[in-house]
Amino acid sequence: MDATFTAEQDEIRRTLREVLLKRCGPDEVKSATRTAAGYDTSLWSALSEQLGLPGLATPEEYGGVGCSVTELALACEESGRALAPSPLLATAVLAAPLLLALGSGPQRAELLPRIASGELTAALAVPGTGLATALGLTGDNRGDWAGGGRAGGVQARRADGGWRLYGQAEQVLDGHSARLLVVAAHTGGFARPRTLLFLVREGAAGLVRTRQTSLDETRPQARIELRDVEAELLGDEGAASRADVAGALAAVGDTAAAVIAAEAVGAADRVLERTVEYVRQREQFGRAVGSFQAVKHRLADVYVQVQAARSAAYYAAWAAAAGGDRDGEGPVVGSLALAQALEALRTAASEAVQLHGGIGFTWEHDVHLYFKRASGDELLFGPVHRLRAHAAERSGLFEEAGL
Q: Where does the Acyl-CoA dehydrogenase/oxidase N-terminal domain start and stop, copy by copy (predicted)?
């Protein structure tokens, strides 16, 4: 493993940081989250057209840049520093890889170039609040999380030579604004139960999307209601029934874990920087707060934790780019890196609130954006102890220890 970054990777980070510094400060972030889309559409267009961000890890044959997960993770580390609200995670990290892995030739040819250009945004909709389970991060995703043939979840049935969906999905990232939904639905009833993926286009009859109030406004979520909605099966009709949907979702989960870990590291690093800047300026008893030994020790502990999380996130991104770990025999580095990064972000944000003193406890203060991101991400993709427990279970750690 070569741990040094290439000139191209350094350029991606530098360019993206410059753009976000100019156009995505805390005030701009707060304004963008309150728009109908939930993000700055002009900034998204600039990131798509100038940097090719949504197509960074998409193959060149589909209009992408052709880079790997490593470059995407580095880009997300920079977007995490600014807490930039955008459909990047939902579109490029969750939905696009599923289209690439399971889509038919015509589906890939039609949709992936539009995603790579930034024209088309997409979202992954899974039933209930089971995104982390569906991605195989906190539990086995080969169970009945998609509905299990019972009432609830999302059900699919054949009708008039096509497919119809009915049911509901909660906590769909960017689901209120995405022009394409990739919906996981249960089909076959009790006799031949299986989970398949379907495409639902914007404006489909019977599709009701409601933006939900979320703790972290930089990650807008929606409730998706499917009232007998026409859908298109993802993949060829014959091959789709034999496709390993759970395996594809778990593979996307490993990649997403590495990317989200890098994003969390970027956020933790930036909130730590802000805290250090503040304690250098804030005076108490005639001297800077940062000169007190207890404050130095607290910040030093946070620094070590953030750097350790950064190393884990980089390794996870490299492992995902090198093919990942799908045999379940080795450590699941994506989940472990994500757990470490979320823990580091939570610690850095909590210390920021504490060390900013009275102003830090003001809900409207900028450091609370990072505190909300830390709490929101753990609710969506964690909690940390379940990430670690499932990774240990998949790697056979408890069996080797005789537990």
A: 6-119
CA distance 23 to 125: 30
**Where in 254-377 does DSSP place strands (E)?**
283-284, 287-288
184 phi and psi angles, rounded to 5 deg: -90, 125
Tokens of 77: 């580390």
pLDDT tens for residues 102-117?
999 999 999 999 999 9
Position 2 pLDDT exceeds 80: no
Sorted by where each begins, the domain ranges of the chain are 7-120, 123-240, 245-400
CATH superfamily entry for domain 245-400: Butyryl-CoA Dehydrogenase, subunit A, domain 3 (1.20.140.10)
Cβ–Cβ < 8 Å for 118, 178: no
What 3-state class would DSSP assign to 146? coil
- CA 350, 341, 278, 81 dihedral sign is negative
Average pLDDT, the chain: 91
Q: Which residues does 241 contact at the CB level (< 8 Å), separation at least 6?
A: 194, 196
DSSP-derived secondary structure for 92-133: IIIIHHHHHHH--HHHHHHHHHHHHTTS--EEEE-SBT-HHH
More confident of the two residues 401 and 248? 248
Supply the Cα-derived Rg of the chain in whole angstroms.
21
pLDDT given for residue 103 in this prediction: 95
Q: How far apart are CA 251 and CA 141, in angstroms?
A: 11
Pick the CATH number of 123-240 from 3.40.140.10, 2.40.110.10, 3.40.50.1220, 3.40.50.720: 2.40.110.10
Residues 159-180 have pLDDT tens digits of 888 999 999 998 899 999 999 9
What is the number of helices (H) and of strands (E) in the chain?
Answer: 16, 9
7-120 homologous superfamily: Acyl-CoA dehydrogenase/oxidase, N-terminal domain (1.10.540.10)
pLDDT at 358 over 90: no
